[in-house]
Specification:
2 copies of one chain form a homodimer. Chain A is built from 5 helices and 40 strands. By secondary structure, the first copy, chain A, is mainly beta. The complex binds pyrroloquinoline quinone (2 copies). The site of one pyrroloquinoline quinone has 21 residues of chain A, from loops. One pyrroloquinoline quinone (PQQ) binds next to loops of chain B.
Chain lengths: 604, 604
């Protein structure tokens, strides 16, 4: 009788959620901790799960429950989705999609393998990565490397619609996950190293019709900026702000790509994301602030209209893309409840903003090694309010072309790159996978040719300890961060950059992966390592968790690659190859080889 | 004091074993169950371990302890070696070798990656497999796909010597593991589908100088057969027996390759192995018994001289290569202690012979589906003594060219292929991974061109149930076999052919892998499944076990491929592609994708 009642109520719930589908099906799905329906876990990008069967007491007993090889090698970023009893898994190029039946030992329900012209591979800057799938309206969305966005029937894998979002012949590629917010599919574009002018595009979830496209630079009609209403640090930006900090037509090949993670606040109906580096990497060639590269954006979901912008690194001289995720956490700051947006930027500063209006609340270094700027000017009255105070010695622009600016911290890949952090509401802290790497940076003159590299700098990266002179040689830390005060709460040293996304749970745990291949679980409060397991290959995927058949699972893709692992992934050996990353991670080859395997953990 | 004594005695032991190295270092090593020093476990190919920390009581608690991606996809056959605290691991083409430090979480001590001309790949008949490494005299031996045998310093991975054993331009390749017996390295040759005349070659372990080479066919000087002393079923074979059952020069492109496992009896100083199919697969084109294809061989280790031969399938009409391992088990038969050699042939008969003289003791079907022959004639007085009694209906020769002979059991890939069985001295039984597959076979005329396929038959394979009419559709069984009586003791159905090698332990367990990717442990006595785990990809590797730091480990390579998995491995789709195997295993794609991962299991 009890059972009958239970299944009846499940039925009602199912009906309700179907009824709500037109309103916002995903909002319901993401509240069910058993599923993992978004590549970011939820709209807010918290990457937090209320599941707690696995907890600080028993996590030491965790063990792999099953594994699945994707059949593809090279860098496996992102995480699978779990919708009901089906897991959806993606791969790097050629971007295969698998639907696995969790009720039948992971049997393959369907497989989708796009036919893509392999000529896209050489125009991918940082390995053949793909950051995952999105779900909505009974469809699975995949943004192929060649920029084709496809909608697949989630039940059968059959193509429902597809649309071309860009052109690899012009250096445009796709690596970001599509993001479904309500009734729209949002996709970005990559190619900042090829002079691609970034944009974010919203497609109708039903048929793939373009609803709007907002560029990172260009006239207001392109950027969807309202000169009077769109604000930057509280002030209207004025007319054609996406043009007037560029020389001539340079904005047309100006970068500001959008290959990271997006978040969404359904109450404000605003989406949040960051734009990437201005092109070229040689700052001498592009005087001005280069707006709106290196910028956090808040746009209206339905119209794309920009509500506010905040440029983190005006006139970038170090490749500090602002594409890292914007985490929408509600926090009490100075006694007041604030709807915050928290962002760990490549430039080494962690920003806490009021997400309703873009007000800057906190901006502090989250790696003590950061040296290119002393601080962000927090004086609202100052003419440089909100701007980082650049240290002349580390200005590659001041030092000029063909001069090697040495010992800049962080390196171009930032104190953190695309690997997403997570927020735990119980501790009120952020759990951040970080890089502890510095660089030498030598800009040189370069000319633009469509589809050709437009980089204009030679880099060499090395452990931050070499600049700090503290005899350390680790290139990563896993940290807990208080975004209310801008302080590191604890920091765990990692031999290599932590290039994996994290998840935290109500079980008091943070999970992350390491470049050598360990899946680790640490205590949220202390950072104490409670569990580790060596997965087949280096981890650059994002850990996720779900429940099936009454059991909590933790899953992660291993498969070394990405920018940090590009030496292994692309078989490069010279230390300044791979945009300067190869030398710094050369010793990874002593620990791991290429792979592509999902490992799913559970308690025995 | 106790400890001191212990380490002193270990020291003495070490000295003794070093002292014995010149005599036979490997004989000592293989008796230490902690190590796995031979690709076959021991000289006798028992694949038996005295380790019993993992046993029938606790095996249900087994879990992966660590994993390692090899960085290569496609079929992963063979098993790693463990010598001391180092694990040596190989991959399919391009045949990378890793030395992993078991004292340091599997850290890569060295990596050897040969540069091979990839044009060897199209002349490999049945995937890019490699069956493993051998160890001896401080060196690791690898037989590269391109037939280069290399000796690597086991400590550094540096090349010590190398020698070319064949020529891929003529269709000659290497897939078998090298075998070190005492002071010699033995290697075979593959290419029976390219008209390669098979041979086995012994090289000096010190410097790679060729000591002897014995061909499968040709004049006595080539076959190392003594017309008066070498016997076949007790009788001298007579002059040029490797020529006179062939028409004209056909023996020169006659096949009989040697790509399987070899065993060695140090007391008799005899090595044992089988030769493969006669070329072409069209029997009409090569009248005669085609000696010594499809033959078990006993040769003197030092001279290569053949002591005895036994042709299992004279004048093959079905591709029943005799290359499967010869297991040297001592058994009591009819009250007498016999030094037996047990062989599960592709043709579906399991043979028990006296290995001292080649006397045939038992020959029985180990899959009831076998229908191409009624039995092996066991009447010593009969003119057909020792010959299988072929059923006319299934004779592809009698039915002739361009006629499709239907429903032959087993299929060309045999009731068992290269996947090695094991012998457990406690139960006195053999544990055999088997295929349960039949075929249609249509021979056609073909002409020989060096380096080109010389197959001459179109095949299509399907589950044996279709011929038996018993409504089953499984294509595999894992069986326990009594070689004294020639009877199946128990048989576990498997959905797919069991293409993985097995190991049994003093813990009462048999381990094997499945094509979908499960590592399984079953009770030796009953066949009851006690544990299974889904590894990343389909398993065609051989399970092995070792002990390190007081803990027993079980390890297996996953990575689907081989002949059964050729559809997945080579991306073939038509059912009669892959020499007829593709259709029969097409549904494998519902369970697994390509991979290449070592999974190492232990108790928690
Ligand atoms: O400017 C761009 O368009 C662009 C694209 C990508 C990408 O698509 O992966 C990366 C970067 N930049 C980049 O700067 C960067 O650090 C980076 C790291 C990674 C990665 O996956 O590990 N991709 C990218
Ligand atoms: O005749 C030959 O030389 C030859 C070679 C090989 C090989 O080298 O793998 C196989 C076969 N034949 C063969 O008949 C066969 O069934 C087979 C299976 C496999 C495998 O690895 O799964 N190899 C081979």
């Amino acid at each position: 009788m009890h059972k009958l009642l239970l299944s009846a109520s499940v039925g009602v719930f199912a009906l309700l959620s179907f009824g709500a589908a037109h309103a916002d099906e995903l909002l319901t799905l993401q509240k069910d901790a058993k599923q993992w329906a978004l590549p970011t876990g939820d709209y807010a990008n918290l990457r937090y799960s209320t599941l707690k069967q696995i907890n600080t007491e028993n996590v030491g007993k965790l063990a792999p429950a099953w594994t699945f090889s994707t059949g593809v090698l090279r860098g496996h970023e992102g995480a699978p989705l779990v919708i009901g009893s089906v897991m959806y898994l993606h791969t790097p190029f050629p971007n295969i999609v698998y639907a696995l039946d969790l009720n039948d030992n992971g049997k393959i329900l369907w497989k989708y393998e796009p036919k893509q012209d392999p000529s896209v591979v050489p125009v991918m800057c940082c390995d053949t990565v793909n950051r995952g799938l999105a779900y909505g309206d009974g469809k699975i969305f995949l943004a192929q490397a060649d920029t084709t966005l496809v909608a697949l029937d989630a039940k059968t894998g059959k193509l429902v619609w597809s649309v071309k979002n860009g052109d690899p012949a012009k250096g445009q590629t796709s690596t970001a996950a599509p993001h479904v917010f309500k009734d729209k599919v949002l996709v970005g574009i990559a190619g900042g190293e090829f002079g691609v002018r970034g944009h974010i595009t919203a497609y109708d979830i039903k048929d793939g019709k373009q609803v709007w496209r907002g560029y990172s630079m260009g006239p207001d009609a392109d950027t969807l900026i309202d000169p009077d209403k769109t604000t930057h640090l509280g002030k209207p930006v004025g007319k054609d702000s996406g043009i007037n900090t560029w020389e001539g037509d340079q904005w047309q090949t100006g970068g500001g790509t959008t290959w990271g993670w997006y978040s969404y606040d359904p109450e404000l109906n605003l989406i949040y994301y960051g734009s990437g580096n201005p092109s070229t990497w040689n700052p001498k060639q592009r005087p001005g602030d280069n707006r709106w590269s290196m910028t956090l954006w808040a746009r209206d979901l339905d119209t794309g209209k920009a509500k506010w912008v905040y440029q983190l690194t005006p006139h970038d001289e170090w490749d500090y893309d602002a594409i890292n995720e914007v985490i929408l956490a509600d926090q009490k700051i100075g006694g007041a409840d604030r709807k915050t947006a928290v962002h760990f930027d490549r430039n080494g500063f962690a920003y806490t903003l009021d997400r309703t209006n873009g007000e800057l609340l906190v901006a502090e270094k989250y790696d003590p090694a950061v040296n290119w700027a002393t601080k962000v000017d927090m004086d609202k009255a100052s003419p440089t309010y909100g701007r980082p105070q650049v240290v002349a010695k580390y200005s590659t622009d001041k030092n000029g072309e063909d001069t090697n600016t040495q010992g800049v911290c962080p390196a171009a890949l930032g104190s953190k790159d695309e690997q997403p952090a997570s927020f735990n509401p119980e501790t009120g802290l952020f759990y951040v996978p970080t890089n502890h790497v510095c660089m030498d940076y030598e800009p040189f003159r370069v000319s633009y040719t469509a589809g050709q590299p437009y980089v204009g700098a030679t880099l060499e990266m090395f452990p931050a300890g070499r600049v700090l002179g503290d005899k350390t040689d680790n290139t990563g830390n896993f940290i807990a961060w208080d975004a209310r005060t801008g302080k590191i709460v604890w920091s765990d040293k990692e031999q290599f950059s932590v290039w994996s996304g994290t998840v935290t749970t109500a079980g008091g745990l943070a999970f992350y992966g390491t470049l050598e291949g360990y899946l680790k679980a640490v205590d949220l409060k202390t950072g104490k390592e409670l569990y580790k397991f060596k997965t087949p290959s280096g981890i650059i995927g994002n850990v996720m968790t779900y429940e099936h058949g009454g059991k909590q699972y933790v899953a992660v893709l291993s498969g070394v690659g990405g920018w940090a692992g590009i030496g292994l992934a692309a078989g490069l050996a010279k230390s300044n190859e791979g945009l300067g990353a190869v030398g710094n991670y050369a010793s990874l080859a002593n620990y791991t080889a290429l792979g592509g395997v999902l490992t799913v953990f559970a308690l025995p």
